[in-house]
Amino acid sequence: MINLIKIEPQEKYNLKLFFSNATYAILDFSYLLESKTVLTKSLEDRDYFQSCFIDFGALCWKNGLELSAESLHLKAKQNNLLCYVKEVA
Predict the structure, then answer these.
(1) How large is the average pLDDT for residues 58-77?
(2) Which CB contacts under 8 angstroms, 24+ apart, belong to 63-68?
(3) What is the chain's mean pLDDT, rounded?
(4) What's the whole-number mean pLDDT along residues 24-45?
(5) Residue 48 is inside which H or E element, if any?
(6) Whole-angstrom Cα distance, residue 63 to residue 5?
(7) Dihedral (Cα; 80, 20, 3, 7), 10-degree rounding
(8) CA spacing 20 to 30 A to 88: which of 10, 18, 22, 44?
């Protein structure tokens, strides 16, 4: 099971996500804004968008929106966005 272990907000609606298998990816979440649902409407506020947090390994926001780490990892892998964390000696 892959979990999120760290999030770093980037420019626009991008997040740098670090996964428990020593990989990371920068994903663009602007596609969520296009759906204009009750849960995604609040993400239009960049401060709110960047207030995301990790709960039980998933990407979450206070309004209840939750994205599993496994689905995010798969999205990154399918789009060739996964990188490996370099070990620091």
Answers:
(1) 96
(2) 63/39, 64/39, 65/39, 65/40
(3) 93
(4) 92
(5) helix 46-49
(6) 21
(7) -80
(8) 10
